[in-house]
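Dissemination and training. As part of the outreach component of the grant, students in the summer workshop were shown how a complex can be specified as a set of sequence lines and then modelled as a single object. The example used during the hands-on session is reproduced here so that future cohorts can follow it. Participants entered these lines:
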Amino acid sequence: MSRLKGWFLRVKRAANPKAFEAQMAEEMRAHLEMEAAAHRAAGEDDLTARRAAAVDFGPAEAYKEEIRDRRLSRPFAEMRLDACQALRLMRRHPGFSLAVIVTIGIAIGLNTAIFSAVNAILLQPVGLPNGDRLVTVADISFHRTMRGELSWPDYLAYRDRNQVFDGIEAGLQESVSLGENDLPTGQYNQMRVSTGLFDLIQTPPILGRSFNHADGRPGAEPVVLISHDLWQSRYGGADVVGRVVRVGGLPTTIIGVMPEDFKFPTDRDLWTPYVPEGVLGQRSLRELTLFALLKPGCTEAQANQDLARINRELVAEFPGEFDPKMIVLARNLPAAYMRDASNRTVLLFMAVGLVLAVACANVSNLTLSRGLARQREISMRAALGASRSRLVRQLLLESVLLGLAGGVLGLALAWLGTRGLELLAATGAELPYWVRFEIDPAVLLFLTLVSLLCSVLFGLLPAWRATRVDLNAVLKIGASPGATAREGRMVGVLTVLQFALSVTLLSGAGMLWRSSQELDDYNSMVPAARILTGSIKLPNKPGQTYVSAEARRRFATTLQTQLQALPGATHASLAAELPGLGARRSPIEIEGATAVPLDQAPRLSFIVQTPQHLETIGVALQVGRSFSPTDGRPGQEVAIVTAAFSRRYWPGESAIGKRFRFLTGKRAVPPGPWLEVIGECADFLENPTLPAPEPMAFVPFEQSPVAQFFILLRTAGDPVGLATAARETVQKLDPDVALVQLQPLPEALAELRWSARTFGLIFLIFAAAGLLTSAVGIYATVACATTRRTREIGIRMALGATAGQVVRLILSRGLLQMIVGIALGLWVGWQFVQLLRRTGLLFQLPSSAFGWMLALALFTMAIGFVACLLPARRATRVPPTEALRVE
Amino acid sequence: MPKEKADVLQGTLDMLILKAVQPATMHGYGISVRIRQISRDVLQVEQGSLYPALYRLEEQGWITSEWGTSDNNRKAKFYSITRTGRRQLEAEQANWARVSAAINLVLDAEPEAGT
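and obtained this result:
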């Protein structure tokens, strides 16, 4: 009880230091007066009495200090003192302070920015009601993506038979045209959804009404919900509910506007009810993804067991219609939509971790070097009675202040960084709409923790070292406080570490950068800069204009003829794929080859195209003839193959006149007709993830009239000039078909290279930051070491050493550390590059990858060499007479 | 020959203060006078050094303080012992008695032959 009172007393005293101080003084004064009075009573005069009292009392100030020492606020008062001291020092050494703050600031800024992505992608819950219970259900057995692969009857089966979901809805994502009389037709991302979807995710529209069951019945009035974004950008926020527009050519009524930022699940602008009519209701049309809400307490594993049970039932009930190998899985939304993004984010996080490590090692090194220079100050403090813990505390506080200043700078950089990331994500990564990069409390907490951790990391070791002083050795007059061997080793190890980490980062950056550049050099025969490309999707669902192949053929033929006639156009063609952007693959059978089971059949990339396409993209025909307008008609099925194709399947023979055919991926469907090879063209890299051009075939559009294709327009000048004319041509041909993504071919290619280039750039920034800090670090440590050795150098030079010998002496150690660091970095860097390849960021190693890595290492070395040379040269310029007078 | 003056043993100052304030409330000066009186001037405490001890004891809850007026009408801080202080004093006195008795035993012992 009284102990508690004692604490209460201490708190009271700490809370009011002024009153406490006054009390103490008053009490002691009273004592002195009473003692003086006693002396006077003994007959002494006033002055003597007072003096005697003071002598008897002893050093009053010292006693007061002893009392003050017990005060609760004592450590804080000390800290304030240390902080003032630290700030004074920071001002007195602006170069050092700035180097530390900038180094730490950059590292913390980068880390925080990337952490905001980690936070948004990996840590934040899905931004939907019950988001943690929401899963997608899809067949991942064939394409290994999470898109589609289930049919409407499948959906009904899973809906009615499952025991694990509180609700399950379906969606089909597609691109669709949106037209009306007074606005140009645009192409938008649509999702056809079962009518209960918005109830499942508990998101009603902000204007108008949501879908009801009647909207999904066959024969219902077509209705559409639009995104807030579309509402603003296309209609300027006007009252659109009730307006009739054409969606995919079909008159449709807008019934509502969804909330701001709502794009479910990724990047959608239109939602229409899925009406299971005709083909859309058949089991063969497998394009649906299901969204389901797990029952509370039900795990994904349980859900998957239940789904597997349903699959077994379906395989037994509908033999031949279900592939027993089908794997239908429930996965939470982050796993379904952000697997790539989270892999990459983790990779980035590792990389910025390296930057932080370099920064900490560097600052540690700087502080350590300065600690050596400060030995005399520290010894003085120790001699005056500062305990080691007090000294460590003081040095740590300096570090923490620098670290926090770095953190403030980091916060500014991180803010910029998140803006940059948002821009990058908007252009390249298909992130769900609920993912936002923000500096929220979690990110701020991370920033603070990292700043503090950094300060302790870079401060503790040097502080510990610096305070281990031998007073006698250091305080001796004239003794030069030199580094001991052990401290030198410490600095050396840190330098090695910095260079190793820098080279690691630089390797990653270099490989990504170089491989994205090499991608540009592929297919050099394609005059990409003079080709305009655009994308078209013909509405070919039942009930739409282009459901018949004949309608698509007619459209394509007319369009090509009209495009070719445009003034300025030298070539025009339509093709299912753009050159160098990957192609569809299908299993094939070569005539006369031994038959193999379907899943072992060779798979071939092929491109559907109109005549003139090879000429447009500049691929030379080597043997045979190109497509004529009648090629591809029944009885005249043909193909053109690449040289690689004929080398592989008819080695040493001419391919002309040979035949092959496409097998469909499904067992039940018969293979296509035999195609006769009429021409052989030059090799051509369609899939940039492969190291060399693979065998390919070209097939006439007439033969397989696809609904989605690209136009390619080649001109003699700038292709962008043709954009308006091309768009008008398509509009005039059919107002419900939109020509979108009009851009020169290089820009279309750049989208593919986005990830390699972007991540290359990001890593380059990281590497530059790392290299810069390492260079500053080695410069500072060599400079510091050299300053300490000024007298030694003076003596050497006075005794006849040449400048060159002195420079060599100083360089030798720095260089050795650098070489060890770089060698280590090359090894770690090589592992890092392998990791990049495994995560798919790096398609393939650039040619002579190791040569490039060596070049990067030499580059690092050159920078380090200069950083060492500058202080070494400076040391030799000090005249020996002056050098000897130092200290 | 003047009386030898002894430094107060480390740690015994607390006990002396508690003993001094045990019978009556007393200010700092009074305590120093009283310690000198009872020890017949043998125990010489540097007067200032009382104060850190007083503050410490108060924070331990063994004594409490109050401002009041001294005999010659001067404002002064008066200390009095608390119940826990009394217990502490008893414990320390008992301990002291035991230790000093033991030390006396050692000092009084006759040296034995051969050792």
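Chain B has a mean pLDDT of 81. Students were then asked to discuss how this feature might be tested experimentally.
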